[in-house]
Amino acid sequence: MKNCQILSGFFNFLKITNSLCKKMSSPAPKSPEQSVKSKKYDRQLRLWGDHGQKNLENAKICLINATALGTEILKSLVLPGIGLFTIVDGEKICEEDIGSNFFLEVDTLGSSRAQIATQCLLELNPDVRGDYIDETPEHVMSHTQDFFNNFTVVIATALSEKTLIPLSKLLWEANIPLIVCRSIGFLGYIRLQVKEHTVIESHPDSENPDLRLGQPWDALKEHLDQIDVPNLDKKTRSHTPALVILYYFLKKYREEHNGLLPKTRLEKLEIKKMIEESIPSDEHGLNLLEENYKEAIHYVNTAVTPLKIPSNIQEILEDESCVNLTQNSNPFWIMCAALRELVQTDGALPLRGSLPDMASDTNSYVALQQIYQKQAQVHAEIVYRRADQIARNLGLGQDAIIENDVKLFCKHAAELHVMRTSCIADEYEKTNVDLSSYLEDSDSLMFYYIMFRGLERFISEFNAYPGQFDDQVEPDVLKLKGILSKLLNEWGCSHALRDERVHEVCRYGGAELHSVSAVLGGCAAHEVIKLITHQYKPLNNTFICDVISSNTATFCL
Predict the structure, then answer these.
(1) Angle, CA of 162, 96 and 165, to the nearest 5°
(2) 208 lies in a domain?
(3) Which residues are paired to 132 by β-bridges?
């Protein structure tokens, strides 16, 4: 009875406390409502932003052959919301398809593979549109030469060499990216072909902050000079941004060294020592090392650097496409030409305009941030005006250069990347292939590249996979060995492939394992998204996956 009274009293206390809290506290402000799209695509928007998502939603993707690998690639593109896809596939669904592709049900046996795959994929995302053509890629290429010109990216799976070569040439001339993929047994292959691909946001793993304390512009210098760091009271000093502290000691260092910036490790250690010696002590003689002083010491290595144009950016600014513009030049190169003029004038890239997080009170940090942002806007405006003028001089429309694009371009000017791969048709038709450096290691995955090349030639010659029919496994081993030997002789390679590798590929009989295709499909879709969004660096240009050894490798061929 006593326990019941205690519990009853406790619950009454909770009710009274809760009631008082409701009366005393005002409701927390509601965060702004997310749009339906933001909720749906929240994770990926953090990776490539609204502008990247817009590019994705405007993309038109063509898939040649709805194999297990092909449908896995499209699945990983439909889910994030590509605009439209078209499947080109003249095959009917057979038992092998149902066994290797979980998108295809038993009751679809004999139906159009392109049609059923399209229907299943469209169920994944109502925002995406899809279509199919129940014809072979050979038929489409021969009857409608410009069919592929309407697509952003073309993905091809399970193509023979005789079909791949003309497709490669066609898309190379049209400058449409082509991704060729194949999955067989425990092996996978991806080859990217793109005549020219430009990247503005390459998202480097590490990036030094663009602070320019050694070359402050007037507004920054005026702001920093008015803060007398040694005479700040304890509270103000503890909330002063690290950049202000670092600037003060950098200025002091330069006064003692004829205005020179520290360059060597020892010279930078001298500044660090100056900062450490300025840290006040408590009554016991121990240094009161506050967070902002720790940060100031940390930023000595990255913030105090001379202005220098990275070599890879200098190469882009000196590229033929940047120097000799035409009416066909894309906006990237026009912006590069305008950037080139700014660099020639100022000797530096546009200011990034962003500050790293640092210990500080809000007002001090925001004041510093606004100074950086305003200067970044000044640089972006200079580049925009010049790019717009260049576009007009080329006879392009007034909307050829978009101001927001220039702002993004200037913010990421240190990340620019241009990639030009080789043409697959050239790779397949040339005979002077030097693979010797890759083949020194007997475990190199380059041997599987040779195997895939032999496999494609086998399919072209015999219209079947090696080992596809049970009674032909051993004869096909001999045929595949002959094709591989011929390939190696054409390339002038003396290395021989292990017999067990040839037997293993023939044992697969052209079969796809959906789990392997799922992994490879995710990798290929990732590369497609890079191409569409013009963010992150795509692979250059060949990717091999060996699931048995859990190894992958990339090769530039």
Answers:
(1) 10
(2) no
(3) 87
- Region of residue 112 (phi > 0: left; psi between -120 and 50: alpha; otherwise: beta): beta
| Residue 32 one-letter amino acid | P
User: 10 Å Cβ neighbour count for 492?
Assistant: 12
For 555, the enclosing helix (H) or strand (E) is strand 551-555
Domains in the chain, number: 4
Is 21 a member of any domain?
Answer: no
Max CA-CA distance within the chain?
Answer: 97
Q: Rounded CA gap, 349 and 309, in Å?
A: 7
Q: For 29, which DSSP code?
A: P
Other Cβ atoms less than 10 A from the Cβ of 388: the count is 20
pLDDT score for 443: 82
Residue with tokens 């060996």: 546
264, two tokens: 């060597």
More confident residue, 293 or 289: 293
pLDDT at 499: 86
What is the average pLDDT across 89-118?
A: 92
Considering the domain architecture, whether residues 292 and 324 belong to the same structural domain is answered as no
- Residue 286 backbone phi and psi in degrees, to 5: -90, 140
Domain assignment present for residue 335? The answer is yes
Same-domain status, 62 and 183: yes
Domain boundary among 418, 450, 482: 418
Say which DSSP state 464 is in: S
Q: Are 120 and 98 in contact (CB under 8 A)?
A: no
Q: Which helix (H) or strand (E) holds 418?
A: strand 417-419
Rounded to 5 degrees, what angle do the CA atoms 457, 458, 463 make? 110
Helix H, strand E, coil C: the string for 53-86 is HHHHHCCEEEEECCCHHHHHHHHHHHCCCCCEEE
CATH of the domain at 74: 3.40.50.720
Asked if 48 and 168 sit in the same domain, the reply is yes
In degrees, rounded to 5, the angle at the alpha carbon of residue 236 between the alpha carbons of residues 267 and 357 is: 60
354 and 493 housed in the same domain: no
Last residue of a domain, one of 277, 303, 329: 303
Residues forming beta bridges with residue 188, ordered by sequence position: 183, 545
Tell me 108's DSSP state. Answer: G
Q: What is the pLDDT of residue 306?
A: 79
Residue 34 lies in a domain: no
- Residue 460 structural domain: 428-508
Quick one: DSSP state of residue 545?
E
